Every structure is written in C-alpha cells, then in structure tokens.
Amino acid sequence: MAETSPGPAQETAPARSGGAAPASEALSLVPRAEGKQSMKDFKSDQEVRWCPGCGDYAVLAAVQGFMPELGLAKENIVFVSGIGCSSRFPYYMNTYGMHSIHGRAPAIATGLAGSRRDLSVWVVTGDGDALSIGGNHLIHALRRNVNLKILLFNNRIYGLTKGQYSPTSEAGKITKSTPMGSLDAPFNPVSLALGAEASFVARTVDSDRKHLTSVLRAAADHPGTALVEIYQNCNIFNDGAFEVLKDKEQAQEAVIPLEHGLPIRFGAPAEDGLGSRGVVRDPATGDLRIIDVTEEGTEGVLVHDAQAATPTTAFALSRLADPDTLHHTPIGVLRDVRRPVYDTEMAHQLEHAAEQGGKGDLSALLHGNDTWTVVG
Amino acid sequence: MTSQVESPAGPQSGPEGGQGPGRDAGSKEVRRLDRVIIRFAGDSGDGMQLTGDRFTSETASFGNDLSTLPNFPAEIRAPAGTLPGVSSFQLHFADHDILTPGDAPNVLVAMNPAALKANIADVPRGAEIIVNTDEFTKRAMAKVGYAGSPLEDGSLDGYRVHQVPLTTLTVEALKGFELGRKEAGRSKNMFALGLLSWMYHRPTEQTEAFLRSKFAKKPDIAEANIAAFRAGWNFGETTEDFAVSYEVAPASSAFPPGTYRNISGNLALSYGLVAASQQADLPLFLGSYPITPASDVLHELSKHKNFGVRSFQAEDEIAGIGAALGAAFGGSLAVTTTSGPGVALKSETIGLAVSLELPLLIIDIQRGGPSTGLPTKTEQADLLQAMYGRNGEAPVPIVAPSTPADCFTAALDAARIALTYRTPVFLLSDGYLANGSEPWRIPDVDDLPDLRVRFASGANHELDDGTEVFWPYKRDPHTLARPWAVPGTPGLEHRIGGIEKQDGTGNISYDPANHDFMVRTRQAKVDGVEVPEVEVDDPSGDAKLLVLGWGSTYGPITAAVRRVRAAGDEIAQAHLRHLNPFPRNLGEVLKRYEKVVIPEMNLGQLATLIRARYLVDAQSYTQVRGLPFKAEQLATALKEALAHG
C-alpha cells in the first residue's frame, strides 16, 4: 500500500487554478478544485436506497448540482450525518463522509471542523436526529458558531422507524405511537435556532430547487454555523405535509418569502405588483402582525433585514407560522450575521500561545520548575 | 512496621536543607528517622490540600522518596466543623524507596475536633498529634459528638499530644498586618506548615517563593502567609513543647541517577499525551466534559496550546468523545477524558469508533461507583465496563498505569496501540493515581518512542478489470489495521459509518457471512495487539503463591509482598499493564503457581476475567472503601492465603 505522511495541520489553502467562483471568507482556507467540476463528480457509486418518491432525492440532486458551483477540491469536503433516512446522505456523495450515530453528527463535525480549517464540513440531519436525541448538540453547535453547514431535513415524522411522531409533528398527530393523538407541542426549528444564538438560519423546501440552491449558496458563504431547515416530504408516513406551501394557490397565503432588503409582502398581488399582504410591527405590543396592504397601505411594512443586530425580529417572523396549518410560514434566509467563528478563534489562540510562549519545548515542559538531580 | 524508626542523629547530620528561615535547627535534640507518615487534616476550607502539596514539594526537593494520598469530600465547602467536611492529605516520605502513602500516620495535624474524630482511628498509639486548641470549643466538639473534651478526658492517653493554639498564634504573628482576626486566622495552615517544616528539617525557600507567586496580585496576603509560615517554624524552634526535631535523609541510593521532579498521576498523564502528540507528529485534540477526578487533565492540556493542543470543553460527555472522534477522522491524535459515569455516556460513540476503526484514546480516571458514587474517592471498578460495556461485539484494548508517574508511560503506550491498530484504546487510571504524587525520573525526550504514522495516500487495491481503487477497509496483513485516509487526500474520498461494512470496500453490507467475518476480524485485531510479556517477581523461583494485580494496587501489593518476604515466606508477584489483550505468557505464568490471589478495589473484576479466560481458580481479595489498600492489611491477607495453601 502506498502511503505517505501528509500533515493534517496545514492551515492555508494551496491556490489551485481553474476553480469556479472566488472563495468566500468561509471557504478561504479550503483548497480549490483543479478544472471544472460537474454534478457527476459528486455522485458516488452507491445505489440510492430511499423510498421512491422521497423528498430526499430532490435535496440530494440539488446538493450534487450545487457543489460544482463552490469550486472546492472535493477531497476537502466532508458530509457527516447521524441516524435516520436523511442521514444516509453521505453514502451518495463522492466526497469524504461519515454516517455516525443518532443525534451526534454536530458534535463529531465540530471536532473535525475545529481541527481542520481546510475542510468544508456539512452535517445532514433530520427532525428526530437533530431536535430530539441530538437537540443538545445542535443548540451548542449553533451557540459556538463552528464552521459547519447543517442541513436539517424536516419531514415532521420518524420515517426510518416507520412512522412515529417527531418533535416537529403537530400536536394531536395520530401515529403508531400516538393512536389518540400526540400530546407534545412541536418545536419550530427556526425559532429554536434563533434562540440558540445561531448566526445563520434559513428555511427552504425540497421541491423548490432554485430556492433550495440559493439558500445552500448563502449557507456555504456564511462563516460559522449555518442552519438550513429543509421541509422534506415523506411520501410514505407523512405524505403531503407541506402541500400547502407547494400548491401554487395555497402557497400564496401560506408562504411568506423573505429577501434581505425587500419589504415583507406576500399573498395575491396588489396594484404595485407585490403581495397584497404585508408584515408590520404592532406599535402597542411590539409584536408582528399581518395586514392587508390594500386596506392599510404599505407604510410600516417591514423591510427584511437578515443582518439585523438582534434576532428579535427574525424570531417574531418565525412565530407567524401556524404549526398546524403552516399558514404564514416564512421561507428564506431569516438571519445571516457575522460573529466570531469558533474554529478561527481556536486557531488564533494556538497561534497566540506559540507567539507568547514560543513553540512547545517538550523537554522543558517535562522538567518544569522544581527538579533535583541524583548523581550516580 | 508502622512506627517511626528512630536513631540518634550523628554529628554529621543535616548538611543539606533542614534550615529554617535563617535559623539553625541544631539547638535542640535531632533524631534521625528512616521514614515518616504525616497526615494534615482539617475543614474543607482550611487549606489542607495546599498545605500537603507544599510539604510534599519541600520534601521532593529535599530528595526523599515520597508517596501522597489526598482525601477530600466531593462538596467544595461542606458545612464547617462537620465530619463529612473533613479534608486530609497524607504524605509518606523516606530515606529509601517506598511504594505507598503509608498505612498509619506517625503524625496527625488536626485543625479542629472533626478532623481529630474522623482520623484518630487510623493513628496508632505512640504517634504525635498536633491539635489546634482554638477550635476545640464546646460547641465545635458537641457538633461532632464529643461529650467532653478529648484533650482532657484521657482518650488520647498514649499519644504524644501537642496542644497548640494555632489560630491565636497566627493572629498574634500577623499583628503588624492590617488584617482582621478572621482574615489573619486563615493563615493558620501556613503556621502549621512552618511548624512541621521545622520538625522535619524541610527546606523553606520554595514555599516562600510559591506564596509570593500565588499571591502576586495581593502582596500583603503573600507576606502575611510568609510571616505565618515563619512564625510556625520559629514556634517549633523556641517552644519547649517541641523538644525534638527529626531528620529523614535523602533517599539518594533509592534513585537511579537522573533528574527528578515530583509529579501527580493526572499531570504525568497530561504530559504523556502531549509527548505522544509530539512523538506521533500529530496535533493533539482533547474533547472533554468536566468530571471529577479527570478535570485536571482538561485543565492541564488547556495550558499547552503552544504545543498545538486543541482542548474542547464540550456540552456533554457524548459531545466530548464525538468531537474527539471527528478530529481523529481528520487526522488528529484524539483523546477524551472522563470518569466512570462519563464512560457510560460515551459507550455508543466508543462502539462507533470500534466500527470506524479510528485511533482514539479514552481516559477513564476511575472513581467510586455505581452512579455518582464517590466522586473524589478511588476505585477500580470500571474494568468490566471498559472491557464489555458496549452493544455488540466491540473489543477495545485496555492499558492501566500502576503508579502516578507511570501514567506518563501508559499514555504513550495507549497512543502506540491506538495509532498502530487504528482502534479506540482505554486507559484506566483512578482517583488515587490521579491525585497522588511521587518522584519521577524525567525521561530524555530522545529516548521516547517514535509514534509516527503514515496516512494513506493512494490506491491500495486493484479490481479484476485492472482499475486501481482505494478500499478503506483493506487491512494491513500484519496488524489488521485499516488505512487511515484523512480528508484532504485526493482520490481517497470514502464514506464510513456505524452500519456493518463489507470487508475491503467498506460499503454497507448486511450479508451474514460478511458480518461474521468482520466481527471476528475486529476481535482478532485487538487480540493481536502486541503487548510485552508479563514479568514475574519470584526471587527464589520456589514460590507457590502468585499475587496478581493491575493498576494502582501496584504500590500496596508490592509493599505487602516485601513484608511477606521479610517474614521469611516465599511469594511471587506479577502486575498487569495490559488488560486487553492479556500478555501472551499470562496463561503459562498462572499455571506455574498452585495458588493465585488477585487483590482489587472492586468485587473481583480481573479475577472474573482471569477465571473465565484461563480456567484458573484465582482467589479474589477485594476492598471498595474509596481508599487504596493498606500494605499491612494486604500482607496479612497474603500470609493467610499462604498458610491455608
């Protein structure tokens, strides 16, 4: 077996030629691909084993199609997953990958990304994996702001274990484990992430490839942890869960599309071509409410600011969604702010320590300050 | 053998050290001892651990052999003056090589009634007891159940009791400082340290330097403590109550030539991990969650960022090992440190590491269990957890250090196994090794083992059609290790996971024959780990009884064996560094003896493994008191085993 000893400790990306787009700050240390890549380069030789019609296929295709755009050396890309249907994802990507254990992918990826800044590390997880058994790791990854991109496939059901309710299932849901209806109040993953100090939070839908890709792009460019909630249809155990967001007519009422810098308008077009509904702040309570702009005018309609200093408005936006009907569900990038990135800071501490104390001298360390000598 | 061995000091006594702050201790009678056991005991807030540490440092730099036993409650500040709140520090030092912190103190320093009551049972008649009389108030004595004063009711007859108003004397000594009585009284532990330093001719310069540096930001407090320390020394020198001081000569002949320092198990372990990283030329990554008694390793490694050490304090035990495993995938020397309850939480990830076949060190500083158990006390009851505590067949090599300083070597050895065989490895230390200390001959860095590894860099398999491919589970035929292909290596992109893998390709496989093969291969890999043969100490070769131990019982067992031999009996001793796999010659060694006795601080876990594996009727001798064995107690047990042979 041919083996050599390259160090994993390298901290700078060799500038390879022929890459695609210029590297963003988040990816500046990741080596660029030589030559042009195509979607095919990211397909592994493994047979995809999701159920026919599963929303996961669409997400896989979108990710494989999007990867060449990043122009990264694919050996420097790693997909880490937990357990669940979506967590089979790494097997289908022709990159490095680890299919780990239930809920722990963010922890494992934290160690990898924290020690290898030359890698682009992606976590693939589901609503059960990320929000139930792995809830602790998710919130702490977001809080730390490690350079990870977390794709949370939310189908509001446990699929791999054949149909129990999940932490995002609507209250009262009838499943095999809740024949009289679930008693749990669901999590809103976007609200949760915002509460956990996330620096990037977005929501998208499996079937809207264009939107999904645009969110992936924004996440990839974000330095720090990015959480992307992807509404994903489980056609076996929870079919049609997001139909209201996909059906053109219903979506007009259900979806609040968010674009940074644009007024938050949705619904059937008003005279100005934008949606007839708008989101305004109630001066009495400070909370958000939805108005009909044809009646109340466009003055006061909020302009979406994903880079707002505080997550307050993003959180309020996330709370507009009705967990039962999914009406007024914000879709898009809710929050995208810069703050110190854990692995960058950790590397700085190491550099600083070496500057201050000199590079470690093992013999000096072992000797310490209090020694005595025995002569023979 | 529990009392002090005394002889009048010769005229040439005390040339090195033994000098108080600018004074000559020679104006009183000086007796020479070959060894002394001192126990400092007081309230959790009295600073007994610091006092013991300082006395230990003085003793180490003087050149005695020594062994220590800190013993403290889990509560940071238990209610003052109560029995559960008593904290103690025992130090055994000698002019020859010693193996344990000692069975019974020759000197007990009791800072309050609770400390006296909690410790008196361990102190043999004839020993010296120094009590702080200021604390022996009616209320304080009643609090711990003394009906009358033990200082007056004759219950201490037969002891040499020194009644010293430590608090009052300290406050008096600090009159020149602008401190209240309460504040000044806090320095009474330094007064006691000064007194003991006078009694045993300890060098004092280092303690003064230590206090100046510890309180660098509060020079007044530093000077007050130094003044209390000197006052204690002077008190010994001048008061008639202390008529005699003692010398314990350096243990020069006990030590091979070299440079020495005093070191605790957790510090030695931390240094071993840094050394392993340097010798492997791999960055060290520690994923950990605070837990007693392992946190000191996290603290220590966090100081050495200039060695490229990344220490990560995770949100929980699971994330600690998860992050370490992620770093291992990325090519770091990865470590997680914990104690028994943490191991329980990490079990699933250890199983994943077994399946992924990545190098990973799992450091378990064992403590009393089950559950939260005795967080600050020692035990070695995690052996079977380390051996079997996972779902499925998930073999993990196990390494155990035998003394505090040995934790250094054990860490390097655990790293060797992990890196060579691409496997998680358990290192089982315990609370006694972690906090206990002893002199350590500092190794020459050039003599440390070369742990460098080779990452995979290219194809390793040719398909039938001639295509060159990389197979992540194609093994080294000798070690059965799979290649370590780290992300960033072009052409080796591969996916691994916890689902059973096809031999060679590493692709998901549910094939029955493949699973059977993979389970057996993972076991064979661990069974094949190269470990040195176990050495047997059997001077005459005629012993009929073998005493077998592992881990931190090495000191007490060896001391007990010496006593048995000193009494004229023959006994063989062997001690295991490797618990999985066992040394190749262990079965043959066991069969050589008519009787095998296995002392353990559990209910017979090694004995269970030995009996199952070798069909040897090993006899278990166990204790789970949260404290190490006493040498005398073990010697008695061994003599009984010999007698009933």
UniProtKB/TrEMBL annotation, chain B:
Residues 1-14 have a biased composition (Low complexity). Residues 285-501 form the Pyruvate flavodoxin/ferredoxin oxidoreductase pyrimidine binding domain. One of its GO terms (molecular function) is oxidoreductase activity, acting on the aldehyde or oxo group of donors. Keywords: Oxidoreductase. CDD domains: TPP_PYR_PFOR_IOR-alpha_like. This is 2-oxoacid:acceptor oxidoreductase subunit alpha. The lineage of its organism: Bacteria, Bacillati, Actinomycetota, Actinomycetes, Kitasatosporales. It holds the Pfam family POR_N. Residues 45-232 form the Pyruvate/ketoisovalerate oxidoreductase catalytic domain. One of its GO terms (biological process) is response to oxidative stress. Residues 543-613 form the Pyruvate:ferredoxin oxidoreductase core domain. NCBIfam families: OAFO_sf. It comes from Streptomyces reniochalinae. Residues 1-28 are annotated as: Disordered.
